[in-house]
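## Example pair
The file below holds two records. Each record gives the amino-acid sequence first, followed by its structure token line.
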Amino acid sequence: MANPGSGEVGPQPFAYLSAPNAALYRDVLRSFARAKERFIVHLRPEDVAAELRRDSDEQLTQALEKLVEWGNLRADADTGRVTSVEDFHRKRFLFQLTAAGHAAEQAIAFYEEAIGQRGVLQSVALADIADQLAALSALAGEDDPDPAKVHLLLLTLADRFSSLADNAQAFMSSLRRAIDFSDGDIEGFIAYKERLIDYVNRFIADLANSGAHIARLLDEVEARGHERLLGLAAGREASDAVPDGADAAEAFGRAEAGALESWRNRWRGLRDWFVSGGADRPSQARLLRQSAVTAIKQLVDTVGLLNERRSGRSDRSADFRTLARWFAEVPDEAAMHRLWRAAFGLTSARHLTVTAATVEAWEGAQGAPWADAPPVRISPQLRRTGSYERRGRPNRVQDRSQMRRLLRERADQEAAETAAARVRLRTSGKVLLSDLGVLDRRAFRLFLSLLGDALAARLPGDTEVKAVTGDGSMEVRLALVPDGGQVRIMTEDGVLSGPEHLIEITDLHE
């Protein structure tokens, strides 16, 4: 580092990334990195040109000089080929990577690898992890296990586990990006998704089978004393890290304690990945399986959406999202009702004819199954072609005020009956089901809806549950009465029997 007060500028090994001809600088530094992997330290300009398969021209010379200026390279006088005084005074240099330049290259290479990584679901890694754990279990059963074997097994296990976790995370991220795309090669995606679904399905099956086996092996190793194995690995690492000296024993103790804590953390991560800690702490393997299953469903839904777009059909989900946004933006409840009627057609229309005969048919069909309800008469031409236009003069506009009045009266009657049923079922506290009394038809149907919501929300083993109706208007609390026996609730439609409960029904709109 340069002294801030001296005016000197320190190394700037990343400066070339934003400079003109950054691609040339990158290629030059890559050639030095490859040479270092071949244990070649110094390169001449002509060596760099040969590595890049280009001429050793002025542009390459200037690039090398700029990299020396930024601190990526170091230039040393090349005196190995001097045969005359003229050669000595001619500029000849040997170039090599500096420590800062080498560190910058490693950082950039790591960044490019991480960004460009396409994760894979490694079924083979699951088998390798199981094999390593089985070998560790065998060593744990020995009275005096070999520290070198234990250390190597743990290192291999940690490496395979880290690779599995990183690749699984990268794969799920890339899968979500593939699902979320909107404009792309639709034909290629539809063809690709079949192979992808098969691939994910195979990994899910392997993860379910191997995950259970790995969990059993982890329990087996821990039962035989995994702490002893972790201690052996930590001691072997500490012996390599601590030099000889007066304070060697104290330094060894600190290094061993740090290494042991590191191995315990890795082991805890491995266990959390494959072994669940209860219903509220599922293992990472289980979460990965759930994410993979969800991804498959999303893939299928995406393909269905793409097929709908290709066939020219409307996007119903987009329509409903737009409608939901409109509902959120309306100023008052009256506007909500107007939007509801406009969106779902619950208003009078020219094709809707409500006559006295229609009303009589409705009254006669009260309580009848849908299949037995009076049919709606549709023109054969409309059924055949999808449109119907009668030739000749159009009909005169009819006065439909009487029809609309009938519809309003019927809607008001239904609203009044529902309000009366809500008042009838509302309780002032907890009451027994057997004390509800005789229920009329409207109150009984509302009661069945409330009872169904409560029973659907109750989990196995629960004796008390609370539920709110879908429209958020009523709340029901239901508690089983121990040894309450069977009760019979009398209604106009018949008798409902079941176990005795305490019930409390609250009207949330009051």
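Second record, same layout:
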Amino acid sequence: MDQFNEDGPGGIALDKNFTFDYPFFTPGAGEMPVSEPENRALLDFLYKTPNVYAVFTFGPYNNLSEAPKFDKAKTSKRIITGLLEKDATVGEQVAKLYTGQANLKDAPAMPATKGNFAQTAYYHYGRFSFSTPGWWVPKLTAAKDTAKKTESTLPKPAGPGSTTASPGQNDDVKFLKWADANGVPGTFVAWAAVEHPDFPGRKAEVGGVVPFARLNPPVRFLTQAAEQHTRFLTTFAAQMPSIEIANVRTESLGNGVNRITAQVVNRGLLPTGSEMGDKVRFVPKLRIELVLGENQAVVSGRKRILRGPLAAGETAEVTFLVTGSGRVTLEAGNAMIGIQRTPLTLN
């Protein structure tokens, strides 16, 4: 009783409506996981697109400025809630790349929320998943007199019993100081009394920090943010896995039998897939296959080899005994990283 807007403001928060760690019976999370058509459309796209290597999200969760640490207790449970060990190592590598290339410092703590997209992309889609807000309010380096001027325009605590944080500790105050020092208008609306039709005869006020002003960069900061993240994403793409079929040899053993040996090498600086991808059993395996023609057969070894990810610089050696003559093709890769092909001639 005596509640107002008890269903919560703003309807459904789409980033609470995904499948991993869905917050049941939480305002804004929706009736059930992926109840919203926008979320369903996004997940349908992902699950129909096997060539996605990694997912990047711009949103209110940051695992790029500081990568989450490996926690064995979270990975040994039936439902895994923490990065697997190899994936945590990759996360640290990518976080260093991000802070170096994007050159963004002093990131605020932005832990993962329940039911968000970035974690669903990792735990349920099995891909590396990285998230950043893309921009945040830098630390203020303005002169003290500017800071004092800003503080003087803000509402003061109500009195000795007030729980309002002091200006030096309040994030809204820090944001308004920065906005004042950088000439960013429209970030704060002075509190004013209004006649509210739902509260006749009672005092009502509106005002304060403009919604989302702390999260959305002013237009003049967008170009710099875009350039920083373009530089990071370009460098990330250059470090992606690159499969090479090397040291291929074909030897005739007589009686129409040939031995084929080769090495499949990951020349990239990142693994060919996440460790979590093997757990969810949906991510395509690394496939090494000898594609035969007519009147050819593999008499020793497997024609098609499926295996987990190759780490950066790791090598997989393969051997086939093949009967017949003519051309065969050795293939290695998968949809996420591309497929390399090397034609061979049997003696």
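Notes on the second record: The chain has a mean pLDDT of 89. The first helix runs from residue 37 to 47.
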